Amino acid sequence: MIGLEDVYNVVEAMAPLYVALLLGYGSVKWWGIFTPEQCDSINKLVSFFTLPLFTFEFTAHADPFEMNYLFIGADAISKLIILVVLVFWAKCSSKGSYCWFITSFSLSTLTNTLVVGVPLIKAMYGPNAVDLVVQASIVQAIIWLTILLFVLEFRKTGSDIASTTPSTSDSHMISFEIKDAEGNDTTVRPRTSFLGLMKIVWLKLALNPNSYASIIGITWALIANRWHFQMPSIMEGSILIMSRAGTGTAMFSMGLFMAQQKNLVACGPTLTVFGMVLRFFAGPAAMAIGCIIVGLHGDTLRVAIIQAALPQSITSFIYAKEYGLHADVLSTAVIFGMMVSLPVLIGYYFMLGFLH
């Protein structure tokens, strides 16, 4: 049963995030410390240094041999359900698009499991349930955030190529001629083959530490747990000195972004409600279906649904900001999601208590 002390523990875990957020916001809005160019540089620092090291650090300390693979299977099925629905929406709806497909997937599936999930789930179901939340976070970092990074890079690279003129087009490109409708003049337009585009995308991802931080981390975890040895302290200390700043600098960068917007609710009320519906209802509903398919029950079922209703992943905002895709929507989802998550998740807790 959740008591006032448990609620306080969750608030205690979340409050420092808002301190970092306010410091970032105030440094631009009130004190004028950073220029827009400097704000972009800070986001790159977070994206290319603190977050990859943070991801590596927590995946490297996992034990892959003790994972609940039914739980992970339910999580994978829920995300595949979301993908199928979004593909159908993007193809069949006049409002569907590739860009909103990416953002809607982030809003529906990517959660803040470590900061909010761990203290809340511990209060609800005890320390054994925390292991499930950590497992979900590891799989999210290894698979789903990596996929998100790929599709964002694919979109950005394709857009960059499409915006180039024939005179500045790369040579990974193929030119072709078409006849104008009004005469015999020819127009040369650049086109990139799919393989050429993929080559550019993979090259960029190879230079992005987010692409392989979680892979290296889980590889280390497999080796370390198989042969029972620990990371050398000099190596761990070198990682921790930057990784400990991961979440804080991410929230600071979000504050910088907020301060540069005209309105505090950067994306407007309609998109805010849209994001909250996807985050707190669509994700848990898909997870419930996944749990039924694999046969989860008891507290494992309850933990699976509640962790799917956790607030928005901070990393998803950093990626959105870096790649210029609906950062206003993701920042609002993170900020408001953490504000409203506590009553929503407690409501789920009491409703799920009736399940047997």
UniProtKB/TrEMBL annotation:
Q: Which InterPro entries match?
A: Auxin_eff_plant, Auxin_Efflux_Carrier, Mem_transp_PIN-like
Q: Which GO terms describe its cellular component?
A: endoplasmic reticulum; plasma membrane
Q: What is its main location?
A: membrane
Q: According to Swiss-Prot or TrEMBL, what is its membrane topology? A: Multi-pass membrane protein
Which molecular-function annotations from GO does this UniProt entry contain? auxin efflux transmembrane transporter activity
Chain segments annotated as transmembrane: 15-33, 45-62, 68-90, 97-121, 133-152, 201-223, 238-259, 271-295, 332-351
Q: Does the keyword Membrane apply?
A: yes
Q: What are the subcellular locations of this protein?
A: Membrane
Keyword annotations for this protein?
Answer: Auxin signaling pathway, Membrane, Transmembrane, Transmembrane helix, Transport
One Pfam family recorded for the sequence: Mem_trans
Q: Which GO terms describe its biological process?
A: auxin polar transport; auxin-activated signaling pathway
Q: Which family does the record assign?
A: Belongs to the auxin efflux carrier (TC 2.A.69.1) family.
Function comment: May act as a component of the auxin efflux carrier.
Protein name as annotated: Auxin efflux carrier component
Source species? Aquilegia coerulea
